[in-house]
Structures are given as C-alpha cells and as structure tokens.
Design goal:
Elements lengths: L12 E6 L20 H8 L4 E7 L20 E4 L2 E4 L24 E5 L22 H7 L4 E7 L1 H14 L3 E10 L6 H11 L3 E3 L5
Parallel strand pairs: 1-2, 1-6, 2-5, 6-7, 7-8
Antiparallel strand pairs: 3-4
Helix pairs in contact: 3-4
Length: 212
C-alpha cells in the first residue's frame, strides 16, 4: 500500500486477486486475451483494501489437468476424472517457472499468497476448493479467523477461476463482488456468458462491464 494511502473499505472486507500470472497473460502458455490489461487497474484498487490476498496456480510439470499428461489428447478437449469432467489445458503455471510467476507489473505486497493446483491428480479452479468440490484450500478458515465477511474479486479468468471462487465464496456465506472490468475471460464455447449468469443467480454482485 502506498505510504500516503489509507484503505477506504470496511475492515471486514478483503480483496482477492485471482491468478494474475505470466502464463495467463499475452505470450504465456494459456494466455487470456488482454489478461495484462487489468494490471494497472488492479494495482490502483489495492490501495482501498487493508487485507489483500493473491492466488497463484502452482502445478507440477506432470499435472493430470494437462493435455500432455494424456497421450493423444488435444488441449481444450475434455476427459473424465474421478471428480468429474475436466478440461485438458496446455502445460501452464509449472511450479518455479517464469510462467507461474506473477505478472511483473503486479503489486504483490499482499498479506497472503495462496497456491492452488499443486496436487498432481486434481485441478483447482477455485480459491476455496479443489475441483472435487470437497477438498478445501484453507482460505475460508483464514478469512473467518480474520473476521472477513465481504470479498471483492478480480483477476483471471472470469469464466474459470474467478467464477468458481466467487460461487464457492457465496456458498460459504461470504458477500461477494466481482469487478468484471478488472477480469478477462477465456470464453470457451460461451463460458463467459454462462459464468456471468451463474454468478448473478448465486447473488454475486457484478460491477463494471465485461470487456468484449
């Protein structure tokens, strides 16, 4: 936070920035169109919050959500995993790689960096649960112990990790706002429109217009 800035949000409100990493930005292995365009706005937003949390995709090189881990499979195809259907992604955000690093322009002076997707056998879109919808990341407990009741989310990608994080936060009883103007989407086969509809139906407050 800038030395001369003071947060203007309530003390029970936290900003959660989802996966603003090199591999999700232009030139990355799983680039979200204009993913880097949110960085300046996200940095400015951070001054409003005393509690700021970053999530970071953090996969082993042989993660089972990678198409390369399934001989003959194409990226963006689907397979059936023990926990349900899984999109098979290009290899991305491998632990310790440049692609897994946060975008170099992103302010990272957050209170907490939560790494997810580090178990080889299961993906983790949500900041709260892995894709089996049962295994917790521990973020909910951290927020509750800090007395946080309201979350503001921004980041990448709107229709996957932001979406699932927002929906899970609502199920867990948090008030949630998603800054659509500070998110960008992959938009696979209408997934952005579906994500917006699902979040709205769950009681997520949507602020700003989704680009495109």
């Amino acid at each position: 936070m800038s030395p001369d800035a003071a947060p203007d949000t309530a003390p029970d409100t936290a900003l959660v920035l989802i996966d603003i990493q090199n591999d999700f930005c232009p030139g990355g292995a799983l680039a979200v169109p204009d993913g880097d365009a949110i960085v300046a706005g996200v940095n400015a937003l951070q001054d409003r919050f005393a509690v700021r949390i970053l999530t970071q995709d953090w996969h082993p090189a042989d993660h089972l959500s990678f198409a390369a881990s399934h001989p003959g499979a194409e990226p963006f195809s689907e397979t059936l995993m023990p926990y349900g259907r899984q999109v098979l992604w290009p290899v991305h955000c491998v632990q310790g790689s440049r692609g897994a690093d946060f975008h170099p322009g992103l302010r990272t002076d957050a209170e907490l960096i939560l790494r997810k997707g580090f178990r080889r056998e299961i993906d983790s879109y949500s900041a709260f649960f892995e894709n089996d919808r049962v295994t917790p990341t521990g973020l909910a407990g951290y927020l509750r112990e800090r007395g946080i009741a309201t979350l503001v989310l921004a980041g990448l990608a709107t229709d996957f990790c932001v979406r699932f994080s927002a929906l899970d936060a609502r199920k867990l009883g948090f008030d949630v706002t998603v800054r659509l103007d500070l998110c960008r989407a992959i938009d696979l086969d209408g997934s952005l429109a579906a994500a917006i509809a699902e979040m709205r139906a769950a009681g997520v407050v949507l602020e700003g217009a989704a680009p495109g």
